[in-house]
Structures are given as C-alpha cells and as structure tokens.
C-alpha cells in the first residue's frame, strides 16, 4: 500500500470522525466511544487521526467547544450561558485555560475591541491577499488569504466593537515593507506591534522572532528555548493563535518529525515562505 493511499485513508477517517464530533456533544465523547464506533483500537484511531489533522480527537473536540463558545458570545449570549451552551461541564473548565485558548479572559474577548480605534488596509501580495490592521501603538493583526473580502470580514468580526477605519495611505509605509520582504528585497521585518496576549504567548512569539530566516525549529525546541520544555502543546497553541503573520514567523516552526504541521493561513503559503527564505539564505551566502 502506497503512502499516498494511506494518507487518503487517514484523511477520510479523520473527516468522518470530525463530522461525528461536530454532530454530537464533543465533551461527552470519549476515545473509547470513538474506537467502538469506528471499529479501531483507541491507539490506532488516535494515531491515524493525529497523522491526518495534527490534533488528537480530544484536542479537536476542545477546539469545537471553543468555537461554539465564541459563536455564542458573538450572538450576544451571556458568558455563563455561552459556557454551558458550548458544552463545557462547568465555568471552571473554560476559565482555567482561557488565557491560552482565547488570548484573554472571556469578558475581554466578548468586548471585541471596544474602545479601540483600528486602521486597516487590504492589498494583493505574492501570497494572495494581505490585511494589515493597526492601532496607534502598532500592528494588531496581519493576515493572509485568497480574497480581500473574507479577510476584511474576519477582521471586522474579530474587532466588531472597535472603531474601524480603512486607511490604505496611512499604512502604506508598513505594507510596502511587508511586500518588499515577501519579494526578497528587504532582509528583515522590524515593525511595531500592539498585541493583546498572555505572558506565555508573548514569550513564545518572542522566541519565534529570534529564529533566523532560512532556519526552522520544532515545537519542542521552542518550548525548551523559553525554559518550559514540557510545554510543547501550549507552544503549538500559541503559534496557532499568532495574530500577525510574517512579523512573528510561526511559519518557521515544524513538527518534530520535520513535517510542516499546521498554519492558520494555509499550508501552501507556509511551504512557499520556507522555500523562499531558504533560497534567499543560500543566495546571500553564495
């Protein structure tokens, strides 16, 4: 059986498990129950699911609960009601991990930028479309995508209560630097940031910024670099919640087996970024 066939079978199995978890109350589904439903041993099911998705079934279920909770808040639900509607068994189950999961407390997340003024610009770039949003202090969001309308909609949803101003000219200096960096004309990105995050996330993101272009690290190495070698999973979560692509180069972090792993702006973009940085490093040393 070829590796391609195995990958397709793993992907199909993972899709079926994901669909089942989305249709159920994910907190109540155990690995043993999944094993019985899909006629696989718990260990075999977990390995195949993680190989296809990068997450264990339990981690995927946790993400479903978190997204359901965030959706309830966006719809105007009270925090306590949103917690139980999303499937958390108690308020403590969310609050004990809220900093890592939301990057802030549930109340702060619900406020969605209230009291902030944010300027933004969206423009085409070598990787598709680029959105840059900034406060007076610095960039608070930098995202990549296939369509400008979707990037703007996501930004407006995330900062729904902020005063949002389109300012292509005012942000032109920063966007020009980013485009130049993507084209290989500028060696480094040194832009001011205004990030609302936990102390742990800031430490992880600072470690990412210390990875030179053309080099990579795995999640375990980043965890060791911040002095918490057992926090590999939390490091991966901090990378996944990086709000500013490129400036905080989470694309330089790989899985321990050397595979690309996840990238919130698309695996293909991650691959292209790494290949471009490797070429630039080779050219500069030639």
Detailed description of the structure:
This protein has 286 residues and is an alpha/beta fold. It has 3 domains: 3-111, Homeodomain-like (Arc Repressor Mutant, subunit A); 117-171, Double Stranded RNA Binding Domain, CATH 3.30.160.70; 199-285, Winged helix-like DNA-binding domain superfamily/Winged helix DNA-binding domain (Arc Repressor Mutant, subunit A), CATH 1.10.10. Helix content is 52%, strand content 11%. The chain is built from 14 helices and 6 strands. The chain has helices spanning 3-23, 31-38, 42-53, 57-74, 79-85, 91-95, 98-102, 106-111, 148-158, 172-182, 199-209, 219-225, 232-240, 267-285; strands at 117-125, 128-134, 139-145, 163-166, 217-218, 253-254. The strands form 2 sheets. Strands 3-2-1-4 form a 4-stranded mixed beta sheet, with helices on both faces. Strands 5-6 form a two-stranded parallel sheet. Helix 1 (3-23) packs across helix 4 (57-74).
Write the layout of secondary structure elements.
Blueprint: H1 3-23, H2 31-38, H3 42-53, H4 57-74, H5 79-85, H6 91-95, H7 98-102, H8 106-111, E1 117-125, E2 128-134, E3 139-145, H9 148-158, E4 163-166, H10 172-182, H11 199-209, E5 217-218, H12 219-225, H13 232-240, E6 253-254, H14 267-285
Parallel strand pairs: 1-4, 5-6
Antiparallel strand pairs: 1-2, 2-3
